[in-house]
């Protein structure tokens, strides 16, 4: 499998994400349900800190990728749903460090969508992930 980042001529290079990837070759598609910042062993959110919830959600994604025989380098798409735009912007540096701790320096295409609420009342972020694992 090879993945090539998409960067049309004249566009600024994105920082911390990719505009798109083209992936070719045989392999497996791994699609993860949205992960929130809760402890999956007990099914409970243990903190109301926005950045800390992001860190837990990212760690949950990394654990699911490992369970699928994948790692962060296989990610081809992330979609973030957040309940507080200002909290996200205020915590960007910390979120960046937590992202690198959990997923390294692989930045797939991603979107961040502000929503009014998530199903789990204490959840402040939910992140969906898609990965491509070569054969």
Q: Could you walk me through the main structural features you see in this protein, from its secondary elements to its overall organization?
A:
By secondary structure, the protein is α+β, with helices and mostly antiparallel strands. Helix content is 27%, strand content 30%. The protein has three helices and six strands; from the N terminus they run E-E-E-H-E-H-H-E-E. It has helices at 50-67, 85-90, 92-103; strands at residues 2-5, 21-24, 27-36, 75-82, 110-114, 125-134. Strands 3-6-4-5 form a four-stranded mixed β-sheet. Helix 1 runs parallel beside helix 3. It starts with a strand and ends with a strand. The model has no long low-confidence stretch (mean pLDDT 91).
Content of β-strand:
25-35%
List how many beta strands DSSP finds: 6
Q: Please list the strands of the largest sheet in the order they lie side by side.
A: 3-6-4-5
- Work out the helix count: 3
Radius of gyration: 15 Å
Average pLDDT across residues?
Answer: 91
Secondary structural class: alpha+beta
What level of helicity do the residues show?
Answer: 25-40%
The main sheet comes to: 4 strands, mixed
Q: Looking at the structure, what is the overall shape?
A: globular
Low confidence ranges: none
Q: What does the oligomeric state look like here? A: single chain
String of helices and strands: EEEHEHHEE
How many angstroms separate the termini?
8 Å
């Amino acid at each position: 499998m090879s993945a090539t980042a998409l960067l049309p001529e004249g566009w600024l290079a994105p920082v911390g994400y990719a505009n798109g990837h083209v992936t070719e070759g045989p392999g497996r598609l791994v699609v993860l349900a949205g992960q929130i910042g809760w402890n999956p062993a007990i099914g409970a959110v243990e903190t109301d800190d926005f950045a800390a919830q992001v860190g837990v959600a990212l760690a949950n994604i990394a654990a699911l990728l490992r369970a699928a025989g994948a790692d962060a380098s296989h990610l081809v798409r992330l979609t973030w749903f957040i309940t507080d735009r200002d909290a996200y912007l205020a915590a960007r540096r910390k979120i960046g460090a937590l992202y690198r701790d959990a997923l390294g320096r692989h930045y797939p295409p991603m979107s961040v969508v502000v929503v009014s609420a998530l199903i789990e009342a204490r959840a402040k972020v939910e992140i969906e992930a898609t990965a491509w694992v070569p054969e």
